[in-house]
Fold:
Amino acid sequence: MYKRHIGLLVILIVSMIFGSVYSKPLVDKPVTLTFMRPDAENPVHSLTRETPLIWQWWEEATGIHIQPVDVVPEQDYKNVFNLKVAAGQVNADLIDVRSDNQGTQLVQYGRDGLLMPLNDLIDKYAPNIKALMKKYPKYKMDLTAPDGKIYAISSANASRYMFMTFLVRKDWLDKLGLKVPDTLEDFYKTAIAFVKHDPNGNGKADEIGMLSPDRLWGLNELACAYDLRLCTGGGFHIREDGRITYDFIMPEAKEFLKFLNKCVKDGAIPPYYDDPSVFTGAGSLFWQKIYDSQLGIYIRAIAPMVGPLNDPKGVMKKNDPKARWVATLPPLMPNGKRAKVTEQLAMRWRTYGITTKCKDPVAAIKWLDFVFASKEGREIYLYGKEGVTFKRNPDGSIERIVTIDTSKDEIATGPLAGKWWGSSITMPILSDDAWTEAQFKIWQTPSWAINSVKANFKYLVAPFQAPMLLPEEAKEVTTLLNDITTYKNEMWAKFVAGDIPITDENFNNYVNRIKQLGIDRIIEIYQKAFARVK
Amino acid sequence: MAYKENRIERIFDIMNIFVLSILGLATLYPFIYILSASFSVPEAVARREVFLYPIGFTLKAYRLVFRSNEVLLAYYNTIWYTVVGTLINVLMTTSAAYPLSRKNFSLRSIIMVYITITMFFSGGLIPFYILVNRLGLYNTRWALVIPGAVSAWNLMMARVFFQTTIPDELIDAAKIDGANEITIFFRIVLPLSKPILAVLALYYGVAHWNDFFGPLIFLSDPKLQPLSIYLRKVLIQAQLYSGEYSGGLEQLQGMVNYALVEQVKYATVIVALLPIMMSYPFLQKYFVKGVMIGALKE
Amino acid sequence: MRKSHLWTLIKRIKKEKFLYIMVLPTLVYFFIFHYIPMYGIVIAFQDYSPAGGFFRSPWVGLEHFRNFFNSPYFLRLLRNTFLLSFYSLIFGFPVPIIFALLLNEVKNTIFKRTVQTVSYFPHFVSIVIVVGIMNIFLSPTDGLVNLLLQRLGYKPIYFMQEVRWFRFLYVSSGIWQNFGWSSIIYLAVLSGISPELYEAAIVDGASRFQRAIYISIPCLLPTIILLLILNIGNLLNVGFEKIILMYSPRTYEVADVISTYVYRRGLLEANFSFGAAVGLFNNIVNFILLLTANYIARRVTEYSLW
Structure:
């Protein structure tokens, strides 16, 4: 008899120990919240049939059960979302909200009563989100509507590793006796060398100097050598003196255009850098060229890409064991400085909010706080459950005890793909340095690769993102911006390709036309929006 | 004097076969390509090496498509929607097209205008969606067969067919024998109209078979979802060029096994296509000449 | 006078009551599912927000239309849309007809059926794959056409980047994809022609060619005219998906159409109202084209929509 009592006692103690690894449940009694969202990216683990293990672990820790509703595939989510909102058919507590980059729809949804303002909820019940917003005021500002309310939170790119860089084949550099390119001219020379001297050693002149998967738009990333921010931020740039410039019409843009044109003419950039038949349709040739060791410089790669590309278990290494990819520094500017724009901290096109139909918003915000910003919640997301998927070493470091072979789980995405959580993006993620470093561990990234990325840290600058605009302002901006962007893209493509010579006259006409189309009015509106926030 | 075949016509016959063969091969080609690509090694497909026959051999893409036994339920649902939907479509379309094909039908013009306007002016998706839901059709099978019951375009084609092939004299003769219009329709008109019935069955049937948007917005119960939704789930479409606004995270996601993702696209086409192709010969015999033999013998 | 007209009308309707019974379900269907939702057209005149709905979104009148017409690209978009459709029609419309007539002349049923079935395949292939297949042939690096050109000593042609190739590629790939499927209705009509007509013509000494011109084509004529009118009524409907896969800024001047412009605008700001206004404009123009085509058809031939 005593044995049974002792047995129960042991179980009780053990479960108390395990239970106390996580904080107490966030709610007094179990709560179920419905969550309208897209389906898991890996269709085998569709949310309509399984609950990802990570969600189950979150539930254990918080006492809150999440019920996905209105689940559709990601690529259709935006359309179905708009439709259901329009038809008044949203019956969920939590919701994955889609909007445009400007966040205009977020503002509308708040105004029209779909989403609950979160300011007070965050203040009282979400200590981690509150701390995050204090640490990153820009994150808070980007998500604050003109009426001062925050209607949704987004994933946060707080990781310093989240910037776009240029990756180069170090092994090819070594073979040809070249240094890592440092100035724009170096990039040009290195690319030409790659094309001429057959670094992949197969006897065929099949190498490509520089290319970007984002086509011509991606190649514009190189303009950071002229302090032009042409990609992230849409070309807008807040200068030191506080004025906002549209970098596509700055005088330096002419020099950059001449550079690109030279690269295209001399073959540093292949002639199909913007050809739809290469980048769309039956499989992007770009990736195959990387894997077939035909590309030397990858323009506009997200810095953590050094992970998968140098992963000993990855496709790249399998195809070419000698391949070594490193990140370059931002090319040197004429004034001797360097600058690299990071990715946006807050992304407004996909956010997570609490609907006004939610009967228990306190539980909802607590759950969001837990999974998005709390230490334990994020640990579950990154590593899983202690004792099951990872163990804690005496020195505090975390070690995985289960590895997922991503090459087996065929369309695997994310570090703990498939059955562990079913989707990696469509949850609010706070990615910080530790997050990226954990991913590097999975990819077994060599330290020289990581260090090449880290060397960029001291040059990082924040990208341009205007605060959310009033609906009338947003309308005016997008009307003007669509025409300006169409004109700019067309002219830019023609300049680079050489269809139009880059003379002073032609360039000035181009600049004047853009001014005529109203670029200054857009800048004025942005300026006003920034002033409003202050 | 009766006409006899001559040499020019024989030459024409040969040229005809030649031209038609070329056209046939040109249209057969995508099928062969897709079939080959779906079985090839993914890297070969990505490198554009595959263009006629498979390079390497793998069933990976198909295994992915058939991985779960949801497929069987999906096939069943698709067949249900196609059969039931097409029956409703054909019945309603022909029963409306026939009266409109009679030149003396009283309100013929007004009704044609009434129908034509719907082809051009529409309130859009949102009111339609609200309406269907208010009618209680949300998440039922009927949502896929009733809101799309008649296509104005197909209706007009059927009407022209009846106009051309069913002469008024035939109808008048039957009326003299004492039949009413409905009996005439079912006993005389429809049996003589096998070609258009086949065409309508084909056009409507294929539309149902491939319809994924309707199920997407009207069916939330996965047990009701057809093959098109299942395949769309299996398929992670390549992004349309949207580099201007997606974040860097998408790059990381997209690069994993991109080639296989492309290949799955082809496997899904074959999976969706084969049943239709196999059922087509069944319909084809209705496109045979001579259906009218005996009809005009009065 | 009026009263007696009305009275005769009612008498006629009574006489044709069975016909009306037959047509009624369809009329009701159109009323419920097409006319009732038409109130949604107001979106084009509002600043629609999904959460605000039709009744709370602010009214802006013709603002979106003015917005669209004032764009410096308006005329270009209109021209490109119209031309792509027009060329597709001119070159594409006769193909299914000729194909059906040629097929009709084949005596061997197995060959006939096979070619017919095979001609449908491209219709079932999604546009993404169609463009993908085009790329296989046209790609500047590994495309078969360019490999051939290089073998023959020419420089590769960058088909998808050149303004001069775009329209040709767009139109011809469209024809290839659709001619088989579109020929079905013509084949159906041809098979409905009584063989006795042909037999009588043979007896009268008509050659095959003459039989085709004097019997087959006239029997096809009502269908041809119908489809021609309907296609003209669809002239401004150039979808964006195919063009997005094929175009790039260098080819905007011929490739950028109304739907792609609206699509890019939607990426900046998901503005339903703007899209709805442009759509309404499209529909009105299309409708006017249809009315014109119908009127001409009614005057010149005896076949028309009403």
Notes: Chain C touches chain B through 102 residues (CB under 8 Å). The two ends of chain C are 25 Å apart (CA to CA).
